Amino acid sequence: MSHKNIVFFLCAMGLVVPEASAFAASETCDAASYKVPPELAGWAHPVEGKAAGVQKTSSAFSLTLGQAAQVPLLPASERQFVLQSGALKHHFDFAGMVRFHISKKETYRVMLGGKAWIDVVSDGKSLDSVAHQHGPACSGIVKMVDFILEPGDYVLQLSGNAQQNVKVMIVSAS
User: Fold this and answer.
1) Span of the secretion signal (predicted)?
2) Of the CATH numbers 1.10.10.10, 1.10.10.1020, 2.60.120.380, 3.65.10.10, which one belongs to the domain with range 36-172?
3) What does the alpha-carbon distance between residue 48 and residue 68 come to, in Å, rounded to a whole number?
């Protein structure tokens, strides 16, 4: 009996539970034709945004909750953050900042179509995240990070991205 047949037999018997990543790696998918769930509908039609690269964020693009934005980031040499990012020590190529506003206290999810480091900044401090996960398979959502946020204005710092453009969206996770 081959290794594949043994694994299948053990799975069928409930004796081995395969890791999702093993099956995900064998799947082929087309992120462009993926149908996002209704609560993530804004991911399918991003608006064009522009990241700020200097500490004065008043000119930074403002994200709308539930609406994805395709954000061109800036080269490392042109960035000057509100707060020193954990990813800056890695010296990756692209980074930037966008703004967003929260009206209601709850848990919010920052979703990225890339692997950038995420800092949510308020009053000069980086806020602690409460959860990390990958996006749904074939969705184009690479990374999801949750934060409990109070009403107010925030800066989303994205750094350590290997590509110049990144898709980003913030939604209620509650």
Assistant:
1) 1-24
2) 2.60.120.380
3) 9
